[in-house]
Amino acid sequence: MVVEIPNVFTPEEAKDILDKLSEAEFIDGKKTAGWNAKGVKNNQQLKNSDPRAAVLKDKVKSVLSKNLLFQSTVRPKSIHTLLFSRYEVGMAYGRHTDNAMMGGTWRSDVSFTIFLTPPETYTGGELIIEGPSREQSYRLAAGCAIAYPSSTLHRVAPIIEGSRWAIVGWVQSWVRDPAKREILFDLDTARRSIFNSQGKTNDFDLISKSMTNLLRSWMD
Questions:
Q1: How far is CA 59 from CA 18, 83, 117, in A?
Q2: pLDDT at 192
């Protein structure tokens, strides 16, 4: 399931992050790519030792921990890896699948991108995710995010004009199977809709019971 998450940051908050990143030290993005992705990765990333990195990572994790749509979609056990990336003209990230394990400890179940640059300020740079029968491209407003299974083939199209700044991250979910996460998301959406329109009804209770018991059964 691919889900767009609006307003993770406001446009003003996204600009504030950009202002901080513009003063920071960036390195070749190949340094964090797997051996099979180094040949297709051409971008720059915030150096982990830069003093801004830890502060910005904490800010992102704090915001996502309070975002209801992100929590319901992803079921995060750990947001274990965060990178701040920059693409200038001619840079791109070719077709690849994200590593199954990161840091030797965490599984990557869900990948996400938080767009920081207003889309009208650059050309190209679309995040392109492959589905069973077609590709879908995304270039969202500043502060908006997209979450998708880490198992998908995806790429970032070349930048033609301007620059593209983004936050990318990986999550180990309490529920590793994306189909099961989608079922839980649908049930959660349905029960919240019932509660908002009708209150705590018998239907709400039964859906809540089923969702809770499925989550209990599927958690790892």
A1: 13, 13, 18
A2: 96
Q: What kind of fold does domain 3-173 have according to CATH? A: Jelly Rolls (2.60.120)
Alpha helices in the chain (DSSP H): 11-22, 51-65, 68-74, 178-198, 202-218
Amino acid 39: pLDDT: 84
Distance CA 124, CA 127 (A): 9
Residue 100, CA distances (Å) to 35, 148, 177 in order:
13, 14, 13
User: Of all helices (H) and strands (E), which one includes residue 82?
Assistant: strand 76-87
Of 1, 143, 155, 13, residue with least CA distance to 75: 1
Taking the C-alpha atoms of residue 6 and residue 69, their distance in angstroms, rounded to an integer, is 9
DSSP structure string for 89-117: TT-EEEEE---SEETTTEE--EEEEEE-S
Integer Cα distance of 200 and 54 in angstroms: 42
pLDDT value of position 29: 81
Rounded Cα distance between 135 and 153, Å, is 10
0.90 surpassed by pTM: yes
Q: Using alpha carbons only, what angle is made at residue 212 by residues 211 and 214, rounded to the nearest 5 degrees?
A: 65
